Amino acid sequence: MKRPIPPIAAPVLSALVLAAGPAAAHHPMGGTTPATLMEGLLSGLGHPVIGPDHLAFLLGLALVAGLAGWGAVRALVFVAGSLAGVVTAWAGLALPGAEALVALSVIGIGAALLARAELPAGAWAALLAAAGLAHGQAFAEAVIGAEATPVLAYLLGLAAVQAAIVLGVAKLAAERPALGRLPRLAGIAAMVVGAAALLA
Description:
- By secondary structure, the chain is an all-alpha fold.
- It has one domain (about 40-200).
- It has 8 helices and no strands.
- The protein is globular.
- Residues about 1-5 and about 15-25 have low confidence and may be disordered.
């Protein structure tokens, strides 16, 4: 008897498949630097969703967190790291090779899903903080040269959308632990997205 497809499968796999294709734009404002509080907020809310590598990482992290039964802390370490990455890049402290590190982090989270890797909490926290810093440096491209007010709104939007995606999908995954092949399929999809980003 075949297992029914869990309700979480369709949206997660659909998002990962869509992420594998090229994004129409990597910035919600079409490349224009946000100049107002509202523009900064909308840009922050949209950036993680329209960036295929960022979205793939968030969904992969959410599945890892949900299946492992993490609380919110480790997932929020990534969100905090991404905010630190934005601030440091905006302040002029660029991390060399940030885009490549983002791509490698997506491959890594995919591999973790595929292998159902188990690491100590401290190791996960360190890896997620580093991944967050790299993603944040990439996110910062949208606000380099912006004034402080739109940047603060951008950070608020980034924090809100990332936390909502990761904690929401993690909660769904935790409530439905019998996901069958979904985690492995999602892991493969994330690795494909990461490899495409690395080779782009």
